[in-house]
Amino acid sequence: MANTGAFPASAGQPQYSGNFIPAIWAGKLVSKFYGTTVFGAIANTDYEGLIKAMGDTVHIRTVPSITIKTYYKGMNLSVDNPDSPGVDLPINKGKYFAFIVDDVDKIQSDLKLMDQWSNDASEQMKIAIDTLVLGDVYADVAATNKGVAAGAKSGAFDLGVPGTSIALTKTNVLDYIVDMGTVLDEANVPETGRWLVIPAWVAGLIKKSDLKDASLAGDNQSVMRNGRLGMIDRFTLYSSNHVATVADGAYTCYYIMAGTRHGITFASQMTEVETLRAQSTFGNIVRGLNIFGYKVVKGDALALLYGRKG
Predict the structure, then answer these.
(1) pLDDT per residue over 272-285, tens digit each?
(2) Beta-sheet pairing, 235-239 with 245-248
(3) pTM
C-alpha cells in the first residue's frame, strides 16, 4: 500500500484526510539557496539615476585621448582638436514577475506568504539579470585582450578561442590567472578594483592548487582551511554559476571574464511594484517590472579566457 500519510481506516469507512483534515505545514520554510549574483560588483552604475522608462537611451560622453608630441625650441606647434565619439546605453531590457495570493491561503496560512514570495521574486530577478549580463558582455571584450595572441604590447598570451579552448587544471589555473592580469597590465588597466568571475569548478581547482599551502599564499590559513579565495594577483575573485557556457565539440566551454568596473556600465530601475485585487477570483496580485540596460563602454578594461575542465 502506498504511504499516503493518512491514518488507515476500516473497510467502508470514509477517509477525510486531504479533504476536511488539513495538512500541517512546517512553521519554517526550507531555506532556498539562491545563486550568487555578481553584476553589481563587476559593473559601474554611474548612469542609473538617468533612466525613466523602457526605451530611454543614456548618452555617455567619453574622454578623448590627448596626443603627446616632441617639442623643439622655436618650432611651430601642431594643435589638436580633441574629439571622442559618445556611447549610447540603451534601456531596452525588461523582466517582470506576477503572482496571486488567494484570500483563503492568506487567512489560513501561518506564514506571511506575500512577503515570502515577494522576497523570492526579488532574488530570482537578480539571478535572471545576472545570467543575462554574463551571457552577453563577453562578446565585447577588446580583441587585444582575448584569443590566442592576447596582450596589447606583446601578443604573447594564449587565452583560448572556440575550437582550441584552454584546459584548466589545478596545476596551471594560477598561471592563467596571472596571464589575465598581465594582459590587463599591457592594456594599462588600473590595478585597483580588478575582479575575476569564475565558475565553481575553477574555484575548486584553485583550492587544490599550490595555494593550499598557506605560506605560498601569504596567509595565516590556507584556502583549504578557511574556504575563502579572496584575492589572487590583484583580482577579487567571484564564484558564479551564471558564467556563460557553450558546447564546443565534446566539451562545455566557459567564457571567464576579468576586468574592472570601468569596463561595463549597468542601469536598472524597478519601475513598478504593485499589489492589486484580482478580478476573476478572491486574492491579491503582486507584480513587479524591472527595466534595465547594460553596455561595455571600455572593452580594453576587460579580459577573456575561453576555457574548459582539463
Answers:
(1) 677 778 777 787 88
(2) unpaired
(3) 0.76
